[in-house]
Amino acid sequence: MTSQTTADILATQSNDPTFDNVWDEIVYRGLVHVSTDTEALRELLGGEPITYYCGFDPTAPSLHLGNLVQLLLLRRLQLAGHRPLGLVGGSTGLIGDPRPTAERVLKTREQTAEWVERIRVHVTKFIASDGANALRVVNNLDWTEPMSAIEFLRDIGKNFRVNTMLKKDAVSARLNSDAGISYTEFSYQILQGLDFRELYRTYDCVLQTGGSDQWGNLTSGTELIRRTEGVSVHAIGTPLITNSDGTKFGKSEGNAIWLDPDMTSPYAFYQFWLNQDDSDVIDRLKVFTFLSRAEIEGLEVEVKERPFAREAQKRLALEVTSLVHGTDATQAAIDASSALFGRGDLTALPLDVVDAAIAELPNATVDATTTVSQAMVATGLVESLGAARRAAAEGGVYVNNERVSDESVAISTLALAGGRAILRRGKKTLAGVTIVG
């Protein structure tokens, strides 16, 4: 695999030339769950360059899987010649978008500012910052902080109707809960509407994108601009990415897939994509890769005719992990995946990659005197020492891909550098051990 960074991959991206209009391509890719006037949007995106934006709030130190959908949509529109604005929410991050369940804990100004910078770096990583339609990053604190409370209430708040605001999904859910909702979070949709108007006035921005769960906030902006400027602007809500049981991936649900390698390792990131269900993988390829329609259709045939080969999942994992983490980290993840199951050299893997793999497996920390059989029990590979002895006698116990016949040997004598060991029972059942002392 040729060594490439995200910047290198960015330079090779292109939209599928078999689509006459980028609108048709994003519809094909399933990126439009809800929108304003579809015919007007198709005409708009097929015409002269427009300015469009998406906002990213610093509610965590990293962006995640759901944000990547927006970043890739911004990139596709940029490749079609349109001008992207990436908004980082220095002010909205201080307020907090209302969740359906409970009030957010407000972050300090210092922490919010630190996370704003981290989010800015993420945004600039995936969208080109050079050329005639280079990315421009803006911070809504720049126009919100100077505004007085009187200005906010008279000039902005006057244009919003409380009965309409109460109908927003998150607001309605909170009103019907024991938690209720504070005026602070209730006002969030007004602030997001103000952002759209500011970007319309300053940059002639006429389109906002966001997740479909943000639709109420997106339309707050379109409505404010209609009322105060007398023009119609547009919004696109993308579908939420969910797991097989319909649960959303995100920080609120505790199952976020982060873009920061310190929060989700490249190995874990790669495994997430590799483990996609056959029923989901083609949709994921459409949303998260720049593979052409023809390539995706070819992989769809593979899923139907040779599902056991998992070619679509392998290509998905390769493409997305390379984009986010570069090809070197992706190759390390691939090598680790092969080595764990005896198809590669575990000793050649860097310690951080081994640790990332162990973190994704059932694992235990043991001392240097622990035997292989004790380690198997500690990690849950077997239920008892007797079961460990039987498995070893049958030839089904491996430590770092070497078959172990004497389960009473200290596992530290078989460990990799750094005191790590990968236990395997049979062909596919794995666990990890970290040895201390």
Automatic annotation (TrEMBL):
One of its GO terms (cellular component) is cytosol. Its main location: cytoplasm. L-tyrosine binds at residues 53, 188, 192. CDD domains: TyrRS_core. Signal peptide: none annotated. ATP binds at residue 251. A motif ('HIGH' region) lies at residues 58-67. Residues 357-429 form the Tyrosine--tRNA ligase SYY-like C-terminal domain. GO terms for biological process: tyrosyl-tRNA aminoacylation. Its EC number is 6.1.1.1. It holds the Pfam family tRNA-synt_1b. Keywords: Aminoacyl-tRNA synthetase, ATP-binding, Cytoplasm, Ligase, Nucleotide-binding, Protein biosynthesis, RNA-binding. It catalyses: tRNA(Tyr) + L-tyrosine + ATP = L-tyrosyl-tRNA(Tyr) + AMP + diphosphate + H(+). Coiled coil: none annotated. It is found in: Cytoplasm. GO terms for molecular function: ATP binding; RNA binding; tyrosine-tRNA ligase activity. A motif ('KMSKS' region) lies at residues 248-252. Homodimer. Belongs to the class-I aminoacyl-tRNA synthetase family. TyrS type 1 subfamily. Catalyzes the attachment of tyrosine to tRNA(Tyr) in a two-step reaction: tyrosine is first activated by ATP to form Tyr-AMP and then transferred to the acceptor end of tRNA(Tyr). NCBIfam families: tyrS. This is Tyrosine--tRNA ligase. It comes from Frondihabitans australicus.
